[in-house]
Design a protein that fits this description.
Elements: E1 23-26, H1 32-43, E2 53-58, H2 71-79, E3 83-89, H3 93-101, E4 105-106, E5 141-143, E6 152-155, E7 160-162, E8 171-174, E9 178-184, E10 187-190, E11 200-205, E12 209-212, E13 215-218, E14 232-237, E15 244-249
Parallel strand pairs: 1-2, 2-3, 3-4, 5-7, 6-8, 7-9, 8-10, 9-11, 10-12
Antiparallel strand pairs: 11-14, 12-13, 14-15
Length: 252
Amino acid sequence: MTVALQATTPATFEIKSANLPLVALLLKSTNLVALARELEARFGDIPDFFDQDALMVDLSPLPPAAGEIDFPALISLLGSYQLVPIAVKGGSPAQTAAALQAGLLPVPDAHLVAARPIAAPPAPTPAAPVASAPAAPLGALVVDKPLRSGQQVYARGRDLVVLAMVNAGAEVIADGHIHVYAPLRGKAMAGARGNTEARIFSLALEAELLSIAGVYRTSEHPLPPGMAGKPTQVRLVPGDEGDKLVMNVMGS
């Protein structure tokens, strides 16, 4: 026998499951002075890179003998870059207790999402019709004017295509690939949010700085012989001694 019972639905609220996208900070040192210096070097000239993004502090990379962490100072430092720390995982019991006292939530079961190529998403599998189709992925951001010194372009969540020169002192940044169909003399940062599959392409490579997923090379280290000014591809290759940037002259 089936019995239907009358239910009462609250008029003022509902509780449902939800997924919250998070940025993860993998903390490798308790030295906040060094952290502040490296954050400034990486994001100091990109004030709008983060937009009040919720953040999880992952203490797992810290060495076992790591000391105490000044979480109020860490939260303040990250907040100055428009990051909102809300959770913590890993670390020693003392570090976790200090994080909780500072207002962070424990999320021991949280895991990092592997970076995926942005420019070539997998083909969707056939599915039953739904009420509304999913939003199409963003196309590449196309810039068709030269970028002068001091100018900056950021392609959030997509590739960047530049059809004109990127002069010294200019910056091109993308979460995906960067294509420069002209001389690249400024700074180029692909995979800005950790996409290790991102690449940089230029018809004439003369860059001041090249970076993919945070691994960078500056003009203090000259380009390999015969590569300056040539059509070049830059990619990130993992290795036993750490990730490194690999450059190849295209068409050779």
